[in-house]
Every structure is written in C-alpha cells, then in structure tokens.
Amino acid sequence: MDYSKNGIVKKHKLLVSSGRRISTKLVINIFRIFMLFLLLIGAAGVSLGLGVVSGILEETPEVEQISIAPSGVSTTVYDSEGNEIEKLVASGSNRIPVTLDKVPDCLQKAFVSIEDERFYEHNGIDTKGILRAGASFFMNGDMQGASTITQQLLKNNVFANGGSESSFGELVKRKVQEQYLAVELEKNQSKAVILENYLNTINLGAGCYGVQAASKRYFNKDVSELTISESAVIAAITQNPTKYNPINHPEENVKRREKVLNNMKKNGYITEEEYQEAIADAVYDRIQTVSVESEQDSTPYSYFVDELISQLLTDLQKQKGYTYEQASNLLYSGGLSIYSTQDPQIQEICDRETSDPDNYPGNVYYSFDWKWSVQRADGTTENYSNVDLTYYYKNLLGQSDFKLIYSEKEDIQNCIDGFKAAYTKDGDVSLGETIMYSLQPQVSFTVMDQKTGYIKAIVGGRGEKETSLSLNRATHSPRQPGSCFKVLAAFAPALDACDMSLATVYNDAPFNYSNGRPVQNWYKSYWGLNTIRHAIEQSMNIVAVRAITDVTPELAYEYLLNFGFTTLVGEDDADNYGGANDVTQATALGGLTKGVYNEELTAAYAAIANGGTYIEPVYYTKVTDSNGRVILEANPQTRQVLDEDTAYLLTNAMHDVVTEGTGKLANIDNQYVSGKTGTSSDDYDIWFSGYTNYLTASIWSGFDENTDITKYCGNTSYHNRLWSKIMKEIHDVKGYTYEEPEKPDTVVQANVCTSCGYLAIDGVCDSVKTEYFSSKTIPTESCKCHIKYTICTVSGKLAGEHCPQDVLETRIYQTTFQGKNSYDKDAVYALPSEIQNGICIIHTQ
Ligand SMILES: [Zn+2]
Ligand SMILES: [Zn+2]
Ligand SMILES: [Zn+2]
C-alpha cells in the first residue's frame, strides 16, 4: 500500500474519475458472478473435478503437514533462579495460550453462536450458510459471514496472507484450498481441538490474540472467570477487531454483543433470565477502569533485558542465519523461553545502591533531552533539539562554558523558553515538544562471573528508566577509561611478552611523548626509580607511558583487541577520526579516541581474574522454543589473553591498590580484592574496575555531557565507596567467604633490590622486597645499582691503601642506573663528586 501523501492523492484522483468508476462497477459485477459460481462449487463439495479446481488443489498442502497452532505467542524471560522476569511481546500484541478446559462454556458458546452457529454439526464447510450468504451477496452485495470457525482457523494459521490476497485469482485460490482443507481437517481433528486452536488464535483487538490475553486485557481476570456478559463482549469483537474494540468503540461493541446474546438464547445456550441479567450488566464501565490501570502498569524493560534482547537478536542472526526481521519475529512472538544469567539478588542490590542518593555527592544536577517541532507560517516544519540549544547559547550568545546541566528543573525551563523566544516567529504553530530529565552525575555498573562470562547484573543509569531500549550507559556509552587502562595496555603486555616483571624499575622523571608533549603525573611531581608494582599501586603515569613505549603501542593494541574491546580505533581507521587512533603512547593512560564500554572493561578485568582467559560476556544460558527444544545455547568465545603467571602477578599487584594505593576506598574488609582506579583527564570520568575470587565488577560515574566532576561534585572518590558497598553486600548475601587467588606453581619468589629489580645483595641493598616472579622472568643477576665504598673520613675520598683503619667508613651509594638520571628521592644516593674524583691524597705513605 502506498500511504504517502502523493500516493493517496493519486488514488483519490483515480477514484473520482468517471472511467474508473464504471470499470470498478463492472469488476464488482463480474466478481459477484464469479463468487456465486465459487460458492456453488463450495456448496456442492469440492470434488466436482473441474479442471481449474483440481489444479488449485494440487498445490494445496497435505492436511497432515499443516499446523493449526497459533503463532505469535509471547516469549518469557527467566532469571538465574527460574523466576519469570519479563514477557516479550510483539509491539502492542499479546497472546497467552490456554487449553479448552480452562475456557468457560459460555465463552465457547458465545463464539459459536456469533461466528458459526452450526459448528458442531457441519463437516468443515457450512453448506446451508454458504447458500444463504451467496444468495444475499448476489442479490444486494451484502457480504455475510459464511466462513466457518474451521475455515477462519485455517485462514489465520495456514494461509500466510489470509484475507489480504494481492489479486482476485489469489483470493479464489485461497478460498478453494481453505474449503478443501477445512473438510480434510475435520476428518483428522476433533471439534474440541479445532475450537481450542481457534480461541487461541483469534485477533481480539488492542493487540490481544486469543481469549486469555483478551480476558486479561479487558477484564483483568483469568479467562476461566468470565461471565456470560463478559464473554459476549469478547466474542463480539471477532468480526472486526478495530470497529468492535470495546475500549475505543463500546457503542459499536454493544450492538454486536446484543446479537451474540440473542443468538445464544435462540440456540438454547442461555436462559431468558441469564440473557436479561447479561443485557443489564454495566460491563463497559469495568473495561474502562481496567484499561487505565493496565496502561499505568506497563513498565519499560530493564537495562538487563534490553541488553539480553540485543544479544539474542545478534546470536539468532549469527548462529542461526536468520535475517533481523526473522530473529525479531521469533523473539517477540515465537513463544520462547529465555533462561537469562541475571541473578535476582545481585541485580536488586545493584539497583538499590546505585539509585540511593546517599551514595552520591550532595550536589544533584539535572540534564535533559529536549525536542521541539514547529510549523512556520509558510508550512515548513523545523525541528530543534539539545544541539540547537547548545549552539544558540554557546556560539550565538557567546556563553563559552554553557552546559546542559542545571541544579534546578526551573532553570532548564528558562533555558528552553529563552531559546523558543528567540526562534519563534509570527504565525508559527508548535507541533510538539518533549523533554526527558536525567539525574547527574550518572552511573553505570556491571557485575560478571569471571569463570563463566555470565553477566549477573547490569545498571545502565540512575533515576527512573522511562522507556525500553533507552540509553544504557554500561553497554552503549563509550567513555574514557583513564588509568584503568594502565594495567591492560602497558603492564599486562610488559609482563606477558616483554620479559619484564613486577620488579622492573622505571625512572619517574620528566618524560615527553614522542610528539614532545610532557607526560604529567596526578601528583604533579616525580618520584624517581620505581617498580611496576609500585607504579600500579600508586597509578604512576610516567612509568606507564615509559612501559608502553618499550612494549610498543602496536603490541599494546593487539593485547587490547584480545581483551575484547570493540570501540578502539586502529591505524587503518584513523582517517575516519581526523587522524586520531589508539595505537599510541597515550593509550597507556586510557586517552582513547572514543573510549570503552563499562561492560567490555569488566570483561577485560574478568580475563585477568580468570587466570588470563577471556570469556565473552553472556546474558543467557539457553533459549528453548514452545515445545521445549533448545534453539540457542550460550557458547561464549573464550581465549587465552595472558599467561596464567601474568594474570596471577597482576592480581597480586592490584591487591596493593586497595590496601596501600589509590583504591583504598574500594576495599572490602572480608574479601581479597584486586582492582584499579581510573580518572580521565579533566576529571570527566571516574572508574573502579576490580574483582574478588568470585565476581568482577566495574563502576563508572560522570556527567552524560563531559563535565569536571570535581568542580561540580567536590570529589572524585564516591564511586570507590559505592563499588565496595555493593560488592560487600553481594558477597555477604551470597555467603562468599574470604578466598585468595590460587598461585600457579610456575610463580616463584625472590628477594630483589627495589631500585633496580635485580637480586638483592645482603648488606648492600637498602630496600629489599620479596617479589613474585614467573619462573621465566626471575632475575639471575645481582643488584646493579648499589655500590659499597670504603671512605677515608679525613680526606672524604675513597680510601687508599695507606689510610689508617680507624678513619675508614663503609658507605653505600647508588650508581646512575641503566643510564637513567636519578630523580628527587634517589638523589641522596648519588655518588658525591669528591668521591668520584678519586682516592685519598692525604695518606700517601
Ligand atoms: Zn641494590
Ligand atoms: Zn639495585
Ligand atoms: Zn685517607
């Protein structure tokens, strides 16, 4: 159908032209004659052996092979405990199958009385009805229902286009096949089976298919509880579900309902008394009340279900070869059972804590999504949104720091009113305006089981979720990961593939990116020689950038792809991003072109938690069809990203982050926690990604529109507390007891000098640490930075062979290590120049 304005105008012109009118009339007459002919064939049975009919019948499917069961059954989603959490239904449609014994006799008889009075007697086609209908049709073109319940069932469930054939020939063909199959079907199936399928199939308006859905929708009760009066309302809808919809058109439904009740009485299914009682019933008042309530009850899908749907649509296409359309039909009306990975307890804790205002800074802000359509006097329409607001205030009014962030909703209205005043002209008609507010700062949270890849809970934002498939900040907003990337991009490949260890030392001293821009530390100073372990604990930028420089950004990028990130920009894609890409030194600090999704960051950390094996996150375990057959089973991709040793070492080092380092607020008193904090530049994003022996979780917080969190909220650490609070509650509720990660046998210990990372020398090295190593990278050489000298205290120079014993002193100095200049704290160990200048010249003999 061409519903475009032009199409309609064209059609209208054709209809009013007289030539068209004549030919239409002619066609109708031919149609009538042909229909009569056809109806006679039907009346006489289909075994006349006419060539045309037998040809059509040859193409008719075998009755054994057709399915009269209704399609379009809603899909049910279960959580990990088997509780039903959601019903997926095709947009505005609903179907709940019910067996005939649950359908009250009065409802069955109401349908039979209005749709097919001789249902219990005929053999599939109603000859008497056809003859009467045919006569009436031939005489005055009045189309009367001659189609039996059996035929209606076939039309709905067997003939895909039943009722909307593209040509007259197709219609004839379908009619002939339908009559033939109706007779065959009645030979094969009982009246009860046919009626049951019919009652579950029939369109009953307001998106309801089948009597159970209609009963719930119009009367908010089970079909078995319907009264005679209510049954008559529902049976009255069938002939024209739009016209007889009892919510929108009670005045039409009431006429048809009276006919239903009359027929029921006439056929002896109800008594005069029952009839009078039903007629007197104020049934439409009840429908209106239920209707209002059910509108309010309809709640949008949760963030978890949104994402589950998206994953299922992808998997049905990828694994089953369906088109998007087919996958979507199956999902929303295939009567599937989806067994999700959502843990109801964990999700409840996440929802409760992330929505509790007490877990956020006191300053609450609002952002908003605004749309406005206005029709100008000349008939053109213009649409405005947030983008136009920002342009107006920022560029036209010169408010350079303008942001769509306000502490009062009232100020938002003023902002919009100001814009509208500037853009409204005489003769404008406002066509519509919508505004949706969102609380700021926002949050996202993902909980995943690192051993299975199961997403246990997900939070895509705080504040009321107003629509299904709304912005999910955990899976659809890429954000800068900041220092959460140090471990993934720099230290993981350094340990895994570049012969480095947690004891490897880098000099935290002034250092520039290859483009000459200096790298800054968050503490705005330099700490000298530091191990990778300490650099992880204290989130040291220069060490991370020096490490990725040695690792090479190319290898780092390869590791990141293996960790499952899909939002990175490679060098070959840089042209699409103004030359920017993520194969750079800045990637070590999470300075990315686009950013990462919370869900993917969680999966990457989960790979470390899982001994180096990455598992693609999954939202379901299996999906079965309405017959209980498994049609999809979660089969997440897994791959070894890191050596088991590397994973253990990083886990061990990241434990220091929560006990000694930048993530102390995220620690949990009765769990072994490993994790990493992250703050993006200008304090736009704050993160903590971490794990216990049981679960991995990441929290992100920030403003939807990039904004300095410190400036607006006063601090950037509330998210660490929230991570800890949620995870502690989860572990306590689940009864997870303290458990340390299991150390691989190939991880060994050695005492190292923390200034150079080589084996410590007793009595010489002043800072010694027992460090874990992969047996592959354990150091074999001794300290290279500490040197013990004997000094003559009289001359202050190196002792010579003639200096007396009692003026000698042993001192330890640090050499310039690996050619790197010592900085700040190491300066005190530097070899004084007078010593460098040689041997005592006082005691010469
Ligand atoms: Zn040493
Ligand atoms: Zn050393
Ligand atoms: Zn001397």
Describe this protein's structure.
There is one protein chain. Helices cover 39% and strands 15% of the residues. It has 845 residues and is α+β, with helices and mostly antiparallel strands. It folds into five domains: 21-59 and 92-297, Penicillin binding protein transpeptidase fold (Orthogonal Bundle), CATH 1.10.3810; 363-440, no CATH class; 445-620 and 635-734, DD-peptidase/beta-lactamase superfamily (Beta-lactamase), CATH 3.40.710.10; 749-782, no CATH class; 785-845, no CATH class. Helix 2 (18-43) runs antiparallel to helix 5 (127-140), helix 16 (344-355) runs antiparallel to helix 26 (718-734) and helix 19 (484-497) crosses helix 22. Mean pLDDT is 86; it is low at 1-26. The structure holds zinc ion (ZN) (3 copies). One zinc ion is lined by residues 753, 755-756, 760, 764-765, 783, 785-786. One zinc ion is lined by residues 792, 794-795, 799-800, 803, 840, 842-843.
Radius of gyration over alpha carbons? 38 Å
Distance between the termini: 115 Å
β-strand amount: 15-25%
User: In one word, what is the shape?
Assistant: elongated
Which features does this protein show?
disordered N terminus, five-stranded mixed sheet, binds zinc ion, alpha+beta, 845 residues, five-stranded antiparallel sheet, Penicillin binding protein transpeptidase fold
How are the elements arranged and paired?
Elements: H1 5-16, H2 18-43, H3 51-58, E1 75-78, E2 84-88, E3 94-95, H4 105-115, H5 127-140, H6 149-157, H7 168-188, H8 191-201, E4 208-209, H9 211-219, H10 228-237, H11 250-266, H12 272-280, H13 283-297, H14 303-320, H15 324-333, E5 337-340, H16 344-355, E6 365-375, E7 381-385, H17 386-396, H18 409-423, E8 429-440, E9 442-448, E10 455-459, H19 484-497, E11 505-508, E12 528-531, H20 532-537, H21 541-551, H22 553-562, H23 598-609, E13 613-615, E14 620-624, E15 630-633, E16 638-640, H24 644-659, E17 674-679, E18 685-691, E19 696-702, H25 709-713, H26 718-734, E20 747-753, E21 768-774, E22 786-792, E23 797-798, E24 808-814, H27 833-836
Helix pairs in contact: 2-5, 2-7, 4-10, 4-11, 6-7, 6-8, 10-11, 11-12, 14-15, 16-26, 19-21, 19-22, 19-24, 21-22
Bound molecules: zinc ion (3 copies).
